[in-house]
Design goal:
Elements lengths: L2 H39 L4 H27 L9 H18 L8 H28 L1 H4 L3 H33 L14 H25 L14 H10 L1 H32 L4 H16 L2 H5 L5 H22 L5 H38 L4 H29 L12 H12 L1 H16 L4 H14 L1
Amino acid sequence: MSEKNNKKGLLRYLGYGVGAVGLDLSYGMFYSYLNKYLTDVLKLSSNFLLVLTPIARIWDGINDPMMGTIVDNGKFKMGKYRPWILIGSFLNAIILGLLFNNVFGLSGTALYIYIAFMYVFWGMTNTLADIPYWSMVPSFTSDPNERSIIATIARTFSGLGQGIISIGAPILMGLVSITTDPNTNEKVFDERTFMILSLVSAVGLILFSTISVSTVKENHRTQSNEKFSFRKIFTIAKNNDQLLVFMLFAMLSNAGFYMISGVGAYYFDVVVGDGSKQSGFNTFGAIGSILGLAVIPIMMKFTTRRRTYQFSLSLAMAGYLGMLICAKAADSITGMGICYLIAQVGTASMFVSQTVFLADIVDYGEYKMGFRAESITFSMKGFLQKMAYTLQTIILYSGLSISHYDGELHSANPAGAHTSISIMMLVLPMILMGLSLIVFTFKFKLNDKKMQEITEKLAAKK
C-alpha cells in the first residue's frame, strides 16, 4: 500500500473515531451522574429506581437485537450504518437534555412516569447510534491486527469523551453550582449543574457524530435481506456459544468499571466531603486510559491477545487493590489517583480487546452458521453495557437504601452510608473483575490460532 493510501486510511479511521467522543459524552452523563441526579435533585425513591432499571433492561433485550436486524437490512444511499448513527445521535441528544431537566416542573406520580419514559427512551435512542457505530469495525477489514488498530483509535476517542465528563464535570460544578454542603462549605452538584452538563454533552454528541459520519465512507461488503425474528436471535445465541461467554465475562468486568464511575460522585461528596476533588482523581484515570491504549500494540509483539487481555484484567484488579489500601492513608487522594491510573491502564486495554473479540465472534458465527450477523452481534455490546450498568445500579440503590443514605446530608450522612459507599467504590470493582477473569480464562476459546483457522476457511469459501 502506498504512503498516500496509508494517510487516507489513517484519516478515515481518525474520522471514524471522532464519533466515539460524542457517544461517550452521553454515556458519561447517563452512567456516571444520572443516579446522583435522580436521588439528590429529584429525590426519587430508591425502591422505584430498583424496579425501573431491570424493566428497562428487559425492553433492551427486545429492542437492541431488533435494531441490529434493522441496521443489517438498511438500504440508505449514505450506506448501511451512517444514517442510523446520525438519527440515533440527534434523538439521543434530545432525550439526554430532557432526562436531566425537569422542564415541565413535574412532581409526584407525573414526575415518576416522566423519568421512567425518558430513562427507557435514552436506552432506545442510544441503541440507534451505538449499534451501527461499533458494527462498522468488522466491515473495514478482515485483518485482526488492523481491527485492533481501528478499535484502539475508536477507544482513544471514547476515552477522550469519558475524560471530558469525568474531569470536566467536577470543575464545571465549582463554576456553576449555587449550592454548598453546610458542613464543609464545598460546592455540590445541584439542578443547575446537571442542566448545563447535559446540554453541553447533547451539543457535543450531535457535533462529533456529524463530523464522523461526514468523514467516513463505508465498505459495502455484505447486504442482508433477512427479517427480524426472535427465532433468528435465539439461533445465533444457541449456535454462537462464544457470544454468550463474551456477554458474561464482559458484563462482569464492565460492571466493575461502572462501579467506580457511578459511585465516585457519592464517594467524594459523602466520604471525602469535597466533590471537586473528584476531578483530580479522574485526571489520573484519564491519563491511565490514554496509556492503556498502548498496551495491546506493545504486548502483541511479545505475546498473544488472550494473555494480553488477562494481563489487562489483572492490572485493573491490582490498581483497585491499591486504591483500597491508599484510602486509609491521611492524604489518600493522590495515592488513590495513582492507583486509579494503574487500574485504568488495564481497563482501557480491556475495552479495546473486547471490541476486537466481538469482531472475531462475528467471523466465528459466520463460520458456524453460514451467514454474517454483524449488527445483531454488535447489538450485544450495547446490551451488555446496559446489563453491566443495571448490575451496578441494583447494587448502588440497594446499598444506599440499606444504609439510609440522604442526598441532602452530603458528608453528614450516617456512618452506615459512609461504609456502604466505600465498599461499593473500593471493594466490589475488584471482585467483579476477578470473576470476569475466571470466566474468560476457562470458557473463552477464540485464541489466535483458532481465529487464523476460521479466517482461512472463510476466505476459501469466498
